Amino acid sequence: MNSSRNLGKVIGEGFRILAAHVRATFFPGNKVECTCCGRSFSRFLYSPYMTARCPFCMSIERYRLLCKFLVEEMDFGQVRMRFLDIAPLWCFKLFCRQFTNVEYVSVDIRSPLADYKMDIQSLQFDDESFDAVLCYHVLEHVPDDRKAIREIFRVLRRGGWALVQVPIEASETKEREEMTPYEIKNVLRWDDHLRSYGPDFFDRLKEAGFVLSISDFVTRLPNEEVERFGLDLKERITVCKKPA
User: Fold this and answer.
1) Has residue 14 been placed in a domain?
2) What is the pTM of this model?
3) Are the C-beta atoms of 91 and 55 separated by less than 8 Å?
């Protein structure tokens, strides 16, 4: 069973790489650049939902911002670390592979991209197993987000950090079943989102024991960098530290 699954992963990876190279040939140039895969193009791809995808790795705006933030603000890859990625995307896996100091581990409840099939609400890792954790726009899909946050805190070593992001689009956090049809359509919007988050989301992180700092990194960048890398101007990155 495991050998068949591993073979499927290898084949899937081969197809992804082939498709990426084919897509990239249609956009030769140096006008825009992807911080995830490091490649340059004449322009980004456009779609009705994500307005600037990388032609090669298919990264979106917030992931290119994430990669730039990790390198420039968190010194990612400069020291040896064990890093947990929850609900991985291929573009970010490519980014992490560039750093020999990073031991990359990924989990997801169903994605074939993940190293381990695992529920974030019950992570099958020992306490303090990781130096850093990424949970990037995942909790809005999770039934018990507080339990998931406690699990992230548990597996993170003392003094470690986690980036835990959700879309903040409401004045207060509401579960789907508490929302009116109007709110579901105009605030929640996505069928697979179980709740809409407000600024009180940060209280949930603090309740688990995290010490927070919220970075406005993207607003400090020159406009030409924002345009070249196709970055998300709305995203504020929350760095969650576990006390030493």
Assistant:
1) no
2) 0.89
3) no
